[in-house]
Amino acid sequence: MECAFHFLNVFYNFMKAIHLSLVKRLKNAKFWLLGIAVVLITIHLNVTWKSDNSNLWGISVIFLSTVCYLIWEKRNKLNLESGVLSSFLGTLLIALILSKSTSFSENFPYVSPFISAVGLGLIASGFKGLKQYWQELLILFFLGVPKVTLLWLIDISPLTAKFAAFVLWYSGFNVSRQGLNITLPTGSVEVYPGCSGMEAIIHLCGLAVLFLVMVSTDWSKKIIVPGVAILIAFVVNGIRVALMAVLAAPSTQKAFEYWHKGDGSLIFSLISVSIFGLFCLFLLRLDEPSNQDSVF
What we know:
mainly alpha
């Protein structure tokens, strides 16, 4: 009897020591979570940089900076209580990211930020606490997940070919179209899914989500902003395809390669972003209260 009582006493003291140790560690939970987040961000930017994807690297810096800002703003309001199952699942997700970071797969940099955020959110706040991070998760979802999924599901190449042919016809060119092929007297191009503009649409929709998260707007603008983003991306890319058809002549191959795969392709992306930025600025100006009284 005394032996059993002694065993229970030792077991109680052992469990009490573990509890005190866990409490002490949880007091520094924010620092541990911050350290893990910094490691995951560094890995993502490093992998993206080594994959020679400058477009994704630049947009990742913007999106991740926004997410860090949002988390910092509400750092004192976060509920950091997680369970065993959620912490285990979150650890598995982060372990998956760390294991995949050594192999440079094409789609990994697009989905890793979202998976990392889900894993870190589960460790920090559990399943119920994920709703605290819905804005951050939404931003990181649109950073790259739609590109991996929607490009396989939606093909707008026929619509892009029709629009590019219409632009050339309206501009006075002797153009004909058969399916995805746009033909001019000097040469022809075929509109593949990669040149359809779907990637540009996804990219600009991500910026639209970023704008809607950061700026408080009414429901009408929440519908208009993504619609305008899709329209701008599609029209600008259609004009780019039309230019490709004009430059498809043998005498202009260098110019064709520059605007197709070189830095010229990034210029059209910059044009889309600039036009969309001006549109967002216009919306912000509309929402500004008019100053009736001037102070002199």
